[in-house]
Structures are given as structure tokens and as C-alpha cells.
Amino acid sequence: MSITDKALRERIKELTCLYDVSSIIVNADADYIEDTLTAIAFSLKKAFQFGDDTEIIITTQTLNIKTSSLQNDTVFITSEICLFNVPNGKIEAHLRTPKFSEQDFLNEEQLLLNSVALKVGSLLERIEIQNSETSLKRQMERADRLSILGEITAGIAHELNTPLANILGFAELLKDQLDAKNSTTRDLDKIIENAIFSREVVKKLMFFACEMPQEMTRVNLVPHIKNAIDLLDATFRKEQVKYVVKIEDDILLLKADPIQLTQIIFNLLINAIYFSPVYGLVTVTAYQTKRDIVLKISDEGIGFQIEDLDKIFQPFFTTKPIGDGAGLGLSVVHGIVASHKGKISAENNKNKGAIFTVMLPKE
What are the pLDDT digits (tens) for 342-356? Predict the structure, then answer.
């Protein structure tokens, strides 16, 4: 075969590779990116002059694709994969030594590698944009759901408030008119107790809907955390759950309603205790950034099911058994945080359990 014929054959292989890679990328599915990169790697391998002896490695932040394992020393050429102009990985073509040297790579092969790296970068950018759009859409849908629930909840709370106040008021009035020894007073006590309980549920609904009046003032978060821990110390001991507090500064100032701030801490701590196993550890962390005060409370419980993460802060949603919770605690926390123009998130801990992160603006 003449040199011209040989060169022509190599160019045809390279053009065929670029066509194949373009086709693979056009039909790529974000859920099967590993399969896509593997197909690209094998297509590249066939395009090289010594295809049988060439091994391709494609590396990204999350994946490492190889056409085969490399046992011996190699010589190689490489090209960076950039994601939004930032290096995010690379493609390498290897030849084993001592059979081959760097001179056995053609200049056109380096250009081919560069072209494919550019196409792979474009693919990863496209997937990143799609994932961001999907995530943003979910956040907006969730915010819309919570907003609608908040409006409905506020309406229900207002409608229930007046009849509950009447029930409680007339029951107490009737009790005052009866002899303390009258057996009817015991029934009235039950009515009063249940009315008070129902009123507390309505309060929680109004907290979720941000309908409770606030008294915003300058507050130091640190003593609120310590007071909550002290008050719950007996509960920690009863449930045989340990705790550790990690606070970077003695003073973490923010503008907040002191009562509602305490309610955030209490609800998250009680939730962490409930889901903690015996001898489990609850970790309370607090620190400040330039704009926010950050509170993190984590446990070593069972964590969240992935499908439940979007529902955690919805009112009446609970993973507790029937009778152990009304599903209002975390929705109340969410409502308070939202009314303070803050953010709250829930996620699974890397090791085990769950972690709640509350970010409240300093001003």
C-alpha cells in the first residue's frame, strides 16, 4: 500500500469516527451517560492507526471509562474536556511501551482527540443545563404547592379559630356554674382539654401559613440553642440518645422572633430524637457566613426515602406511625423560616440519618 493510500485510509477512519461520535451524542440519554462515553471510547479506538494496540481512557468528575485495563507502561496523548470553559476531565489515547513511542501517534490523531473532547464537553454541558432546568422546575413546583397549601391552611385555621374559642369559652363557663363534685365536670374537663389541643393544632396551622404575628428583634442564637438542649436533656436521657453541640462563635446575632426561633430549634431537636436509635448521636452545629446564620441538626436514624424528600415540609405529611405525629412540626418550621426570609433543606447524611439545614439572614 502506498503512503498516499495509507494516509487516505487513516483520514477516512478519522472522519468515520467523528460521524459516529456525532451520532452517538445526538442520540445520547442523560440517564445512560456511562454507556454513551463507553461507545465514544471504542469508536475512538478504531480510528487510531494502531487501533488494536490503542486503549482509550475518558475521565470526568464522576466517571472513568476505559476500553481495557492498562497493565504496562504506556505512552499517550491527551486532550482536556471542558465544561463551560472549565476543565472537567480528559480523554487519553495510550500505546504500550516498548513496542511503541510517542512518535507513533499521528498529528491528525491529536486533532481527532481534541475534536472529540470538544464534542464530549458540549454533551456534558447540555446534560448539566437539562439537570439544572429540571431541578429549578421541581423547586418552583414545590414552592407553588407549598404556597397553595399555605393559603388553604390559613383559611382553614381562621374558620376553625372562632368555633373553637366558643367551645372552650362556653365549656369553661358551664364548668364554673357546676359543683366541683358533679360528675358532669369530668366530661367538661375532657371537652376543655380537647378544645385546647385543637387550638394548638390551629396555632401550628397558622404558623405554617405565616399568619402568626411576629416580634422581630436582635437575637443571639447561641443561648436559644443551649436553653433548648437543657430543657430537652431529660428527653435525651430517657430515649438514650447522645448529643454534641458545635458552635463556632459565642455570639451569632440575627433579626428574628425569639419565640419562633425557639420553636424551630425545639421541633428539629424533637424530630431528631424521635428518629435516633438507642445510643445514636444528634449533632447541633451553628456558624455564620457573611449574610446568614446557619443551623444544622443531624441524627443517625433511618434517613429519608428519596421519594419523600419533596414532601417533608408539607403539612400533614409524616413518616411516623399513626398516632405519633400529625405531620405539622416540620411544616411549622418551614413556615417560620420562610416568614424570616430564610431557607431550610432536608437531606440524607452521608453516613447515616438525616440532616436539616436552616439558613436565616442576619438582617
Answer: 999 989 888 788 999
